[in-house]
Amino acid sequence: MLHTLSVKQMSEKLHAGEISSVELTQHYLDRITQFDPELNAYVTVTPELALQMARDADERLKNGTAGLLTGIPIAHKDIFCTDGVKTTCSSKMLDNFIAPYDAHVVTLLKKAGMPILGKTNMDEFAMGSSSESSYYGPTKNPWDLNAVPGGSSGGAAAVIAANLAPMATGTDTGGSIRQPASFCGITGIKPTYGTVSRFGIIAYASSFDQAGPMTRSAEASAWLLNAMSEFDQRDSTCLEMERPDFASELDNSLEGLKVGVPSEYFGEGLEPEVEKIVKDAIAEIEKLGATIVPVSLPNKDLAVPAYYVLAPAEASSNLSRYDGVRFGYRCENPKDLEDLYRRSRAEGFGAEVKRRIMVGAYALSAGYYDAYYLKAQRLRRMVRDDFTQAFEQCDVIMGPVAPTPAFNIGEKTDDPTSMYLADLYTIPVNLGGFPGMSVPAGFANGRPVGLHIVGPYFSEAKLLNIAHQFQQVTDWHKQTPAQYQ
Amino acid sequence: MSIGKSEVASISRLAMIAVADHEVEQVAAKLSKVVDLFAQMQAVDTEGVEPMAHPHAVAQRLRLDEITEGDQHQKLQAIAPAVAMDLYLVPQVIE
Q: Which residues of B touch A371 (CB under 8 A)?
């Protein structure tokens, strides 16, 4: 059973010539045909492209030009522009959009020789926490088909959990890698803002958006992050610095590690079962040599309102490009130019996207700019400074990723603000631009729960080290729902 | 409710998103819920705190004013809803 191999084992077998990339890729394509109709995790499957890339990878494996990930298939979130492939951001607005170029991440992973299986489902324009706002219908959680997979990278998390891809890319603006990783029982890391190029990633809130790997193990995430991060001139906020080898610290001991546990992350609203799982995981890390330090993040509760001013404000500007003129959806028979704009946008965007654009336009409008936008930017600094101060006392911070395990499909769709609060532990990390990850830590009523690890800027290798050591003594990340084993 | 019908009309104009008459009430109610969430911010004293636009204190990178892209207009216009003579078509603007 090829899909039960770890990424490391796949790489070893590909290099030893025991399996071919075509064989491995075809195996995943077959599984997608068999299982994706019930999960709806892919928007587009690209079998011809995948097999062509697999043949090229096999050639490289034979002629000695292959790297660690050459021949291992990958699924890209449908937010990454992929030259010649439909790239929809799960929106009717982009249902007819064939990207004319590759995102930098796609370019790098093509160069690494990773066959593209397809594009994964998500919340429309990455605005959501459940993947229910997709124009193509909700993705289901492989652990329980009545549950959401989280969002916005819900399709990516589901394909890893159900073994419909060994590796996937995601993006995280307010928790969109970590929360679905937690809900689906997989490993995901959002790197420091500026680590991965945003070029060709369809923009939501540009001062928060960051891409990262979604995989089963921390080791595979480290390998994928190595391959997808490189300085890129075309993203003006991509940091011009040498990237470290994110896998270089995986085997380090956790002896002497100082883990900060913020009391504010274990207060009201946190489901008791989630609290127990997270505390047990922290105790396990303590056994590996870490010491626990109480820390405080007093402005945590201000992060959600500040984010819901700032991210929609950026979105209202970013999404002004969808005007029905140059690409994307255009309404029928517009009577004048303004009608063309207003109706194309009204018909092409879904309810949550329209809501965020309107909230953003309102927050930036005359009379409200100081009260909302500037105020939120000041709070952003206060939330960031809380973390900076906490990191003077500890190496990393641990807590829950989300207050509950995956909720049911339809449970929160009528009340947008209750959905927003599902991200109260992840959003502060995006406000600061810090790296954060979710590591599988247990199950509550059969639904997975992740441990949230957050570090100072550029501490990805440390976070991956902690997760990898935790995964040497636990097997939560190896578990698969019975029907997808 | 912090957002009324007249505000929905002005926000609809700012956002360039049409809101049908029968949707106005619901849109107002849901926007109000989000804006009510913002009220929590007002209780906090932020006097003297500098607004933060971006996580890193780095200057915007500049590049030389050189052409880096080749001519791709055919590829880029191939996905446009309406094009003629290399121009994007929109409804008549000038009478």
A: 42
Please give the residue of chain B at the shortest CA–CA distance from A376.
B41
Q: What is the residue range of B14's domain?
A: 5-42
Residue B95 has pLDDT above 90, yes or no: no
Report, as an integer, the average pLDDT of A427-432.
98
Q: Which residues of A are catalytically annotated? A: 77, 152, 176
Q: What is the average pLDDT across A294-298?
A: 97
Task: Report the complex ipTM.
Answer: 0.95
Please give the pLDDT value at position A457: 98
CB-CB under 8 Å, A417 with B52: no
pTM of the model: 0.97
The residue ranges of every structural domain in chain A are 2-257+394-484
Q: If you average pLDDT over residues A311-316, what whole number do you get?
A: 98
Assigned superfamily of A2-257+394-484: Amidase signature (AS) domain (3.90.1300.10)
pLDDT tier at A263, thresholds 50, 70, 90: very high
Answer whether residue B67 is part of any domain.
Answer: no
Q: Give the 3-state DSSP-derived string for chain A, with helices as H, strands as E and coil as C.
A: CHHHCCHHHHHHHHHHCCCCHHHHHHHHHHHHHHHHHHHCCEEEECHHHHHHHHHHHHHHHHHCCCCCCCCCCEEEECCECCCCCECCCCCHHHCCCECCCCCHHHHHHHHCCCCEEEEECCCHHHCCCCCCCCCCCCCCECCECCECCCCCCHHHHHHHHCCCCCEEEEECCCCCCHHHHHHHCCEEEECCCCCCCCCCECCCCCCCCCEEEEECCHHHHHHHHHHHCCCCCCCCCCCCCCCCCCCCCCCCCCCCCEEEEEHHHHCCCCCHHHHHHHHHHHHHHHHCCCEEEEECCCCHHHHHHHHHHHHHHHHHHHHHHCCCCCCCCCCCCCCCHHHHHHHHHHHHCCHHHHHHHHHHHHHCCCCCHHHHHHHHHHHHHHHHHHHHHHCCCCCEEEEECCCCCCCECCCCCCCHHHHHHHHCCCHHHHHHCCCEEEEEEEEECCEEEEEEEECCCCCHHHHHHHHHHHHHHCCHHHCCCHHHC
Number of domains in chain B: 1
Q: How many CB pairs under 8 A join A and B?
A: 165
B63 within a domain of the structure (yes/no): no
A198 chain-B contacts, CB cut-off 8 A: none
Indicate whether B29 belongs to any domain: yes
What is the pLDDT at residue A381? 97
pLDDT in tens, A201-232: 999 999 999 999 999 999 999 999 999 999 99
Asked if the structure places residue B55 within a domain, the reply is: no
